[in-house]
Amino acid sequence: MNSCKIHENASKCSVNTMECFMVLSTQAQKISIATLCGLFGTLCIFENSLVLYLIFSSPRTRRKPSYLFISSLALADILASIIFVCSFVNFHVFNETNFSKEMFLLQLGGVNTSFSASLSSLLLTALDRYISISRPSKYKLLMTRKRAWIALGVLWVTCATIASLPLLGWNCCTLDSTCSELFPFVDDNYLSSWICFIMVLLGCIIYAYAHVLWRAHQHVAYMEKHQAQAGKQNTRMRMDVMLAKTLVMVLTVLVLCWSPVLVLMIYSIFARLSNHLRKVFAFCSTLCLLNSMVNPIIYALRSKELYSSLRMVLSRFRRQLKASEESPEAESTRKSSVIETVCEDMRVT
């Protein structure tokens, strides 16, 4: 593995160069990665599919712009889990190299598009909450369904365009430039630009939620001074505590899942990475998948509307299950009663 010279122009664009990026050297490491990807990916697909079903099965929720953003988040996380798990396990666990440079960059573009769209959907969700608390009287005028769909369209087109740039020519093979030490065929300058894009998204999300928390705290302070009814005041304070817990959870999960990957990406631009750090990066990449798995729990299932919809679905499922279990017994009881009636009639005759 150490003999691979990633930066040599003569070999950096050959398919065999991809073997230099297959850093998992032991069977235990491959099993660990496969287990993490399989577990996180399966849960991510199930949770986000459930969120989409709950949103679009209710006419009330699917009309609201905030739930459109959450739907976009769920869709992006489903795509991220499918594309990431398939390509990541195929590359690092099964060491598959029977595909061209274009096919690899297409897979990488799919992963980048889905993860970028996931973060961008988080940003739209944060901005939606920012507007709802900073301008509550004008929220319905500012955040309409039409504007929400336009924002989502711009989001997905932008993410897909940025992610497809390496496939369209911004790669180290076409430009004969310095290749990344973390991704085959990827230009270092493109990686720097993508990192800046992700950092801007994360910064805007953090700023929006920090402002939401600050405005909520201001509102509670105002209510403490001017609210005459203590019951309403305590209710508002409890809501502020719940909002603070949710926002702290959001920011903590976001930073913990994305900061290790981004730090290693930034470090790879300025210094050579050892094989140990590449292995660390491979394992840290699964944290982005973990973030996609946790998103529906934080953003969707904590919603009272979606939670009530989930309870209705579960209760309906239990009733159907109970009915299916009781139907054979009812049928056998009906048959036995018919037989007894026939026997009695025969005895009478």
Automatic annotation (TrEMBL):
What is the name of the protein in this document? Cannabinoid receptor 2
- Cross-referenced InterPro entries: Cnbnoid_rcpt (IPR002230), GPCR_Rhodpsn (IPR000276), GPCR_Rhodpsn_7TM (IPR017452)
Keyword Membrane carried by entry: yes
TM ranges are 31-55, 67-91, 103-127, 148-170, 190-210, 246-268, 280-301
Tell me if 4Fe-4S is a UniProt keyword of this record: no
Subcellular location(s) of the protein: Cell membrane; Cell projection, Neuron projection
Q: How does it sit in the membrane?
A: Multi-pass membrane protein
UniProt similarity note: Belongs to the G-protein coupled receptor 1 family.
Mind telling me which Gene3D superfamilies this protein's record contains?
Answer: Rhodopsin 7-helix transmembrane proteins
Query: What is the species listed in this Swiss-Prot or TrEMBL entry?
Result: Buteo japonicus
Q: Which SMART domains match?
A: 7TM_GPCR_Srsx
What keywords appear on the UniProt entry?
Cell membrane, Cell projection, G-protein coupled receptor, Glycoprotein, Membrane, Receptor, Transducer, Transmembrane, Transmembrane helix
A single GO CC term for this protein reads: neuron projection
Q: Name one GO molecular function term.
A: cannabinoid receptor activity
Q: Where is the G-protein coupled receptors family 1 profile domain?
A: 47-299
Q: Name one Pfam family in it.
A: 7tm_1
Highest taxon of source: Eukaryota
Fetch the PROSITE patterns from UniProt: G_PROTEIN_RECEP_F1_1, G_PROTEIN_RECEP_F1_2
User: PANTHER family, per this entry?
Assistant: G-PROTEIN COUPLED RECEPTOR
Q: What is its main location?
A: membrane
